[in-house]
Amino acid sequence: MAMKEYAHSLCEKLKAKPTKSNIVAAVNDILSVTISGDPITEDQVRIILSCMDDELGDYGAIEKIISEIRIE
User: Fold this and answer.
1) What pLDDT, on a 0 to 100 scale, did the predictor assign at position 40?
2) From start to end of 16-66, where are the E strands?
3) Which of 3, 9, 30, 44 has the least C-beta neighbours within 10 A?
4) What is the DSSP string of 13-24?
């Protein structure tokens, strides 16, 4: 699956149920993915997140939840 298709599948899940736990699950999924058997690189994470940002745009429900998440 190409990165853009992967990002799209995550976006569809988030649009269907935009909850804090689903956002955290999507991030964990991205960070644990392997590409051609190798761990994902920072650049690949950026590409996936960029594709997701393009697709979700100003999707209010998700933006609101993300703004409330604190990373410790």
Assistant:
1) 92
2) 34-35, 38-39
3) 9
4) HHHHS--HHHHH
Q: What's the token pair of residue 22? A: 């689903």
What count of other Cβ atoms lies within 10 Å of the Cβ of residue 26?
19
Q: At 38, is the secondary structure helix, strand, or coil?
A: strand
Question: Which distant-in-sequence residues (6+ apart) come within 8 Å of 41 by Cβ?
Answer: 35
Give this prediction's pTM.
Answer: 0.75
Listed by start position, the domains of the chain span 3-68
pLDDT at 57 over 80: no
pLDDT digits (tens, 9 = 90+) for 27-38: 899 999 998 899
Which pLDDT score, from 0 to 100, does residue 49 have? 86
List the one residue out of 46, 52, 44, 47 whose CA is nearest residue 8. 52
